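Forwarding the complex inputs:
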Amino acid sequence: MHLTQEIELFPDHRVSQMLFRDVRNAAELKQNAVEGKINGALINPTMLVSPFQVLVAASKALHLQKIGKMKTRTLYSEIIFNLSPTNNISEAFRRFGISDADDSVMVVVVHNKDEPQFVTEITSRVDGRQIPVEDVSSLSDSAKIKKLYKVTPQEEKCGSLLDAVVCRMATKDVM
Amino acid sequence: MAVSELLGKAELLKQGAEARVYRTQFLGKPTIVKERFPKRYRHPVLDEKLTQRRTVQEVRSILRCRRAGICAPVVYFVDYTSHCIFLEEILSSSTVRDHITSAQQSGSCEEAELQRLAERIGQILAQMHDEDVIHGDLTTSNMLLRSSPEGGESNLVLIDFGLSYISALPEDKGVDLYVLEKAFLSTHPNTEPLFEKLLNSYTVSSKKSSAVIKKLDEVRLRGRKRSMVG
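Prediction (whole assembly, two chains):
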């Protein structure tokens, strides 16, 4: 159900993603996240096209953490910030982080390869139904994503929506 | 450094004067990494500034082209400390250069196909220049034909935006076309009519073409081994 992947740049680390729907305690989770009590990033899955999108954000966040050049204060807030096509941090949290009224959440945890307990720890705190991470596209709001990332109709000729999104995530620092 | 370790295990495809190009897997996708290595013959401060600027321009031009509907590889990640760009590897593709060369060798039955290709290249360059993107290194080796999965017409993909920049000047666009003309005619002998077709297609497709073609004619008169008499 959950997806744990290796990232080539940091072979000792793993990125685990867990997707939940019918979530009833979004407000509580958000509060806990803000207070730093959750060891993970809580993302609004309606803004996600694919788990690859999260992986790109996590890989960049880890890289920036290692070289001491993160724009936000923690690794997890950096992952959320990297998903955004703009360089405005509060806007990124608003759009990609979870809100009190959300009924679905994608949880992302970065851990070492021998630490699967982080995953089960988080899962127990979410009051909702876990579904396979690969199903995230069923929760995506393509229209909202296209609007926020400003994807042009002609751009969709050269590639998928995921391509457009990832390209902007990777290049936003210099646009 | 994580990136240099990754490159140590990657397959080196090419080494140019500017950068080394590797092939590897990145986050599960086949990826090309373009590494702009330090140039020791340059003053270090200048080298850093120039390398940084080239990396940034390359990445900006790619996104700008994609937004306008011009196919270019997706950028997955940029490491500004080692000046590495991680790009989508364009699979099932061949360069336009190889395509034209083999089409010429197999005889004149490919004539209509080449004409169509020249027309498409003209169109895509017109689109690019209308976005004020100057490629800077237009050659038939920097254009790929990617076979379409649905089996329709293949995709034209532009690559290697390493010398690209943003400019609205007809002079810069004219020079861009001149670079292509020189590269095209020297790589593919006896293709003057084909290149003319390309230019005609460009003229028809671009909204600002007349100024650009005018500049192209002026630049042609300038070139190497040309008389600079008034």
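The helical segments of chain A are 26-34, 51-66, 75-83, 89-96, 117-125, 142-148, 155-158, 161-171.
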